[in-house]
Design a protein that fits this description.
Radius of gyration: 19 Å
Number of strands: 4
Order of helices and strands: EHHHEEE
CATH superfamily of one domain: Winged helix-like DNA-binding domain superfamily/Winged helix DNA-binding domain
Strand content: 15-25%
Helix content: 25-40%
Distance between the termini: 51 Å
Strand order of the largest sheet: 1-4
CATH architecture of one domain: Orthogonal Bundle
Shape: elongated
């Protein structure tokens, strides 16, 4: 059985930054790649932490660009494998029927 693999959000953001010849904002990357804000900001933060991307601030907006020459990552993962089964739901801390005791 072959598992379907999706590209990681970090690899998508990195590829988009490398392919453009100009600066991009997080909103532009989010709209271009159809990712949510959490995945886009996490990918940009990761890329900045390891020197694969950097940003400048102009008029209250961060403009991002790729810096492949200063990339310090040892390993890059281009695709992710989805989890086999769903995660277990969290257990409730309060037993049913005792919700009025919390307030």
């Amino acid at each position: 059985m072959k598992k379907f693999k999706d590209p990681t959000s970090t690899s998508l953001v990195e590829r988009a930054l490398r392919e453009c010849d100009d600066f991009r904002t997080m909103a532009q990357l989010r709209d271009l790649l159809k990712l949510d804000t959490n995945h886009t900001s996490a990918a940009l933060s990761h890329l900045k932490k390891y020197g694969a991307a950097d940003c400048i601030e102009a008029e209250g907006t961060l403009w991002w660009y790729a810096t492949p020459d200063t990339d310090r990552r040892i390993r890059t993962v281009e695709e992710r494998t989805p989890e086999a089964g769903p995660r277990k739901p969290r257990k409730r801390r309060v037993k049913k029927g005792n919700e009025d005791l919390i307030q």
